[in-house]
């Protein structure tokens, strides 16, 4: 993906630790051909020193897919970005939003909101090493910061350094006193702050993230920002992704073929099992697929029990699917 193409990335699925692994991304790609997918955050040091195929390997079907990096050393981030580009990723994204104790101890993630000059240096170093887009995902501020100057300072720095986009989670992060889970829910959302940034930066790509629960909400946000990022709603109720391409990318609306999806995922799971993996590695991401439909509870039960047993094969997924009733308007709206 060229930097000039980034404006087409109207919808993305957020990087989520322990969730958006390669199996999740392959599954999500079967539901939407066009949305931008993100890896979990991968620490730059791990890429430089660790097992790169295990950390970075992905299926070609996942494109467009971005690699999110964690780190605060410009040189190491540049080296890790170059490795990611060589692996075939379409974008490198710097995490300036995660508030966990682990990233704080490594002086990266959300605590980088306090050092916008360093973030800009990291972006500049990565831009100098790779040809693919380099982007940043941040919060509107941390702790006692005033979100007005805090976000402006970060945005000014990263765009001056050449960043191709800034994705903003429209909440503060509290580095002490709140857990990562609480930081996703307790600090109030301030979408207006992100909208004001877009007014101030009309020629830069500003994407919005945080608490977006539906495709209709995405459409509203796109009146004020260049892109919108779905998080947990895409994971827990992935069926909503089947409507993305028609709503945001001009694809002709069509009834989604869930039987074909299950066949693709069963074949994918079979390949994973042949390589020594387990069915549950794949199906754990599919539990919420038929949310709201008749038979969805039985489907979830089968995937949560039978699919996790040692030796379980892809036929379990087809058995679970057989429990779902796709008739009626609910199936058409999924």
Topology readout:
Blueprint: E1 11-13, H1 22-31, E2 36-43, H2 44-49, H3 52-56, E3 65-70, H4 74-87, E4 91-96, H5 101-105, H6 116-129, E5 134-142, H7 147-160, E6 165-173, H8 180-183, H9 191-200, E7 206-209, H10 215-221, E8 227-230, H11 232-236, H12 244-248, H13 258-274, H14 279-283, H15 296-305, H16 315-322, H17 329-333
Parallel strand pairs: 1-2, 1-8, 2-3, 3-4, 4-5, 5-6, 6-7, 7-8
**Measured distance between first and last alpha carbons:** 30 Å
CATH class of the largest domain: Alpha Beta
DSSP summary: helix tally: 17
Q: Kindly report the name of the CATH homologous superfamily of the largest domain.
A: Aldolase class I
Low-confidence stretches: 329-334
Largest sheet: 8 strands, parallel, barrel
CATH topology of the largest domain: TIM Barrel
From the coordinates shown, what is the CATH architecture of the largest domain? Alpha-Beta Barrel
The tally of strands reads 8
Helix fraction bin = 40-55%
Q: Give, in order, the helices and strands.
A: EHEHHEHEHHEHEHHEHEHHHHHHH
- Cα-atom radius of gyration: 20 Å
- Supply the helix-strand structural class: alpha/beta
Strand order of the largest sheet: 1-2-3-4-5-6-7-8
The rough form would be described as globular
Count of domains: 2
Percent of residues in β-strands = 5-15%
Mean pLDDT: 94
């Amino acid at each position: 993906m060229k930097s000039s193409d980034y404006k087409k990335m109207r919808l993305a699925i957020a990087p989520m630790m322990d969730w958006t692994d390669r199996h999740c991304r392959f599954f999500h790609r079967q539901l939407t051909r066009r949305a931008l997918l993100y890896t979990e955050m991968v620490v730059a040091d791990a890429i430089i020193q660790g097992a790169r195929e295990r950390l970075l390997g992905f299926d070609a079907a996942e494109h467009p897919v971005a690699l999110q990096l964690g780190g605060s050393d410009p040189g190491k981030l540049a080296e890790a970005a170059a490795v990611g580009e060589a692996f075939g990723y379409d974008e490198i994204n710097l995490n300036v939003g995660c508030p966990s104790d682990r990233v704080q101890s490594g002086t990266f993630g959300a605590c980088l909101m306090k050092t916008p000059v360093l973030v800009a240096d990291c972006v500049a170093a990565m831009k100098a090493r790779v040809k693919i887009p380099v982007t940043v995902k941040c919060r509107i501020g941390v702790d006692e910061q005033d979100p007005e100057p805090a976000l402006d300072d970060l945005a000014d720095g990263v765009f001056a350094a050449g960043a191709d986009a800034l994705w903003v989670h429209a909440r503060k992060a509290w580095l002490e006193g709140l857990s990562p889970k609480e930081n996703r829910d307790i600090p109030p959302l301030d979408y207006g702050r992100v909208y004001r940034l877009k007014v101030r930066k009309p020629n830069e790509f500003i994407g919005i993230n945080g608490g977006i629960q539906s495709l209709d909400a995405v459409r509203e946000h796109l009146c004020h920002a260049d892109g919108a990022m779905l998080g947990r709603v895409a994971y827990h109720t992935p069926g909503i992704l089947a409507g993305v391409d028609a709503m945001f990318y001009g694809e002709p609306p069509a009834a989604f073929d869930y039987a074909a999806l299950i066949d693709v995922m069963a074949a994918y799971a079979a390949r994973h099992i042949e390589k020594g993996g387990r069915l549950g590695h794949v199906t754990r991401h599919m539990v919420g697929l038929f949310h709201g439909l008749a038979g969805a509870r039985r489907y979830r039960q089968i995937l949560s029990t039978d699919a996790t047993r040692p030796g379980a094969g892809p036929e379990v997924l087809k058995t679970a699917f057989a429990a779902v009733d796709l008739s009626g308007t609910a199936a058409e709206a999924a």
